[in-house]
Design a protein that fits this description.
This protein has 10 helices and 22 strands. By secondary structure, it is an alpha/beta fold. Helix 1 crosses helix 2 and helix 5 packs across helix 6.
Length: 377
């Protein structure tokens, strides 16, 4: 049995000191430190730093030169190992709009890694299938030649490994697809890369859309007479919303508005691509040439192409630009996304009975230690 002492523990509603977390693979107790006999435990001294829930990235394409769409099991492991340094303990490898056979190969690679009993890195929860059921008018950095008509059967056939997928609700066959997947109940339906009107977006929500893919990006904007997909997503309490809080994809002046509108439905994501953790230069995304300069990743025509954001940086940026408490900011990168994909009973917060997925970080949210299933990784 292990315990963490001398930390400021970030709970769902407060930050507490003079308490200790006792755990093996799951959290066994959170008790006053005076009740702990250090000789009985393997002790981790937090040295006054923050002890927070492990972060959950449900939308990340790649890192350290690897990409989930490559269909390479070793690449998946490389990403999983790399992102633990950013405090990520669980993640959803995210595929792009690529050829259907490439998608299936990518699905199988993730299946293979997820089935392995032991590998070093963040836990795979399942795949985020971003495309190919999108609108060419809002394709962003996705390859138009691989866009397909929405197909609920395809999603259901792969529901053993899929956790969520993106669809443009205005496209032909989309509503039938949404209804079929929602009725099946295993895969979260998200709207994104969409040119839908406010009414079309709301029709999608009524049919089963419960999530919005990287809010504001690649969707119809919020206008006072045409509220668009952004208006529908912000105003409907059933819809959780992803936010790429890198200060580039969305102006940080809007973070406070989104946080107030969505509350515990705000999900911080990275949308990180293979250029993440790498030097500036030339990379690829879905077979397309991407140029990384600082925090910006652009196609040759200037289209934004994912990010190089780290999820702990997203927490830091939200704390800086909103009035969220530490508990709320960490929840946006842990419990909220975990709940969105149906994993909130097991991960996402420091509560007795949940997996011991824990990070220790300083006040600037620099990660010092990452613990997954009770193991210091």
């Amino acid at each position: 049995m292990k315990c963490i002492i001398n930390g400021r523990i970030v709970l769902t509603d407060s930050v507490v000191s003079e308490m200790a977390i006792v755990f093996d693979n799951k959290i066994k107790a959170i008790v006053p430190m005076k009740e702990i006999n250090p000789d009985e435990y393997e002790v981790i001294d937090a040295k006054g730093n923050l002890v927070a829930p492990g972060l959950v990235d449900i939308h990340i394409h790649g890192y350290l030169g690897a990409d989930a769409s490559d269909g390479d099991a070793e690449g998946i492991k490389k990403i999983a190992a790399g992102i633990v340094e950013n405090g990520v303990t669980s993640w959803c490898p995210t595929t792009m709009t690529v050829a259907k056979d490439e998608l299936l190969t990518a699905f199988d690679a993730v299946r293979k890694v997820k089935a392995e009993k032991e590998y070093y890195g963040a836990k795979i929860l399942g795949i985020n299938c971003e495309g190919p059921f999108i609108n060419p008018a809002k394709k962003g950095a996705q390859a138009e030649e691989h866009i397909l008509k929405p197909d609920g059967d395809f999603i259901i056939e792969n529901a053993d490994i899929l956790k969520l997928f993106t669809v443009a609700p205005e496209m032909e066959g989309a509503i039938e697809c949404i209804e079929k997947v929602y009725k099946d109940g295993r895969v979260l339906v998200s709207m994104g890369h969409t040119n839908a009107s406010f009414d079309e977006a709301n029709k999608g929500i009524e049919s089963g859309v419960c999530h919005a893919t990287h809010l504001f990006n690649a969707m119809t904007p919020l206008m006072h007479r045409n509220p668009g997909v952004v208006g529908a997503a912000l105003s409907d309490e059933r819809v959780s919303c992803e936010l790429i809080a890198d200060t580039f994809h969305v102006n940080p002046g809007l973070y406070k508005l989104v946080a107030k509108a969505k509350g515990d439905k705000l999900c911080l994501i990275t949308d990180c691509i293979r250029a993440g953790g790498m030097e500036d230069g030339d990379y690829t995304l879905g077979g397309q040439h991407v140029i990384k300069t600082g925090i910006r990743c652009l196609l040759e025509d200037g289209t934004i192409a994912g990010s190089v954001l780290k999820l702990n940086e997203a927490v830091r940026n939200v704390l800086k630009h909103t009035e969220l408490s530490l508990s709320e900011a960490f929840a946006a990168a842990s419990l909220n996304p975990a709940k969105a994909i149906g994993e909130g009973d097991y991960i996402g917060s420091l509560e007795v009975g949940k997996y011991a997925d824990i990070i220790i970080c300083d006040d600037a949210i620099n990660v010092i230690h990452t613990i997954i299933n009770g193991n210091l990784v």
